[in-house]
From TrEMBL:
Keyword Cytoplasm: yes
Taxonomic superkingdom: Eukaryota
Record-given protein name: Major sperm protein
Keyword Cytoplasm among UniProt keywords: yes
Annotated MSP domain residues: 15-136
Name of a matching Pfam family: Motile_Sperm
Database matches in InterPro entries: Ig-like_fold, MSP_dom, PapD-like_sf
Organism annotation: Caenorhabditis angaria
Primary role: Central component in molecular interactions underlying sperm crawling. Forms an extensive filament system that extends from sperm villipoda, along the leading edge of the pseudopod.
Keywords attached to this entry: Cytoplasm, Cytoskeleton
Length: 152
C-alpha cells in the first residue's frame, strides 16, 4: 500500500448496470485534495445544467465523518451553474486511503422541495468521482536541512 497521493492514473468509477448516465456537466474527473497537516483541506466542483430541464441534485460522500459537502442537495435550473464545496475535515488523525469518492445523483423534477423531489424514487443520472489526497507538508514533516555556506 503506497502513501496517499501516489496514485498517478485517474480511476473512473463506472455506474452500476441499473444506474442511468449522468446528464449534467462536470469538468473534473476526480476530486483532488492538497492538504497540510493539521489543517482541513478543500476542493470544489462546478455542476452545470446545459439542458432545458430542472433537476434536483444530491451530492454524497463515502464518509460523513471525514467529509462535509455544501450544498449537499439543491435545485439546478436550466442554464444554471452551481459550485459545491467539499471539505476534508480532519487531517490530524488517520488519513483516508484513495478509495473514497463522492456520488452525485440527479432527478428531473418540478417539485417545490428537495425532499419531495427525491421521494419520487426514480434517479435520472448518477456520477461518482474518486477523491485523491496529496500531502503538501505540515506538522509531521521532517525538518529541512539548513543551507550552510562553507566559510573557507
Amino acid at each position: 500500500m503506497g502513501e496517499i497521493g501516489d496514485q498517478k492514473k485517474i480511476i473512473k468509477i463506472q455506474n452500476l448496470p441499473n444506474e442511468p448516465p449522468f446528464q449534467l456537466k462536470i469538468e473534473k474527473e476526480e476530486i483532488r485534495f492538497k492538504y497540510v497537516i493539521p489543517n482541513p483541506a478543500f476542493a470544489q466542483i462546478q455542476i452545470i445544467n446545459e439542458l432545458k430541464k430542472r433537476f434536483c441534485v444530491k451530492v454524497k460522500s463515502t464518509d460523513n465523518k471525514l467529509f462535509d459537502i455544501q450544498p449537499a442537495i439543491m435545485f439546478i435550473e436550466p442554464g444554471q451553474s452551481i459550485y459545491v464545496k467539499i471539505t476534508l475535515k480532519d487531517t490530524t488523525n488517520q488519513l483516508p486511503e484513495n478509495h473514497h469518492y463522492i456520488g452525485i445523483f440527479h432527478v428531473e423534477t418540478s417539485a417545490k422541495s428537495v425532499t419531495e423531489a427525491f421521494k419520487q424514487g426514480k434517479i435520472d443520472g448518477v456520477l461518482r468521482l474518486p477523491m485523491i489526497f496529496e500531502r503538501e507538508g505540515g506538522a509531521e514533516d521532517p525538518p529541512q536541512p539548513a543551507n550552510v555556506m562553507n566559510a573557507d
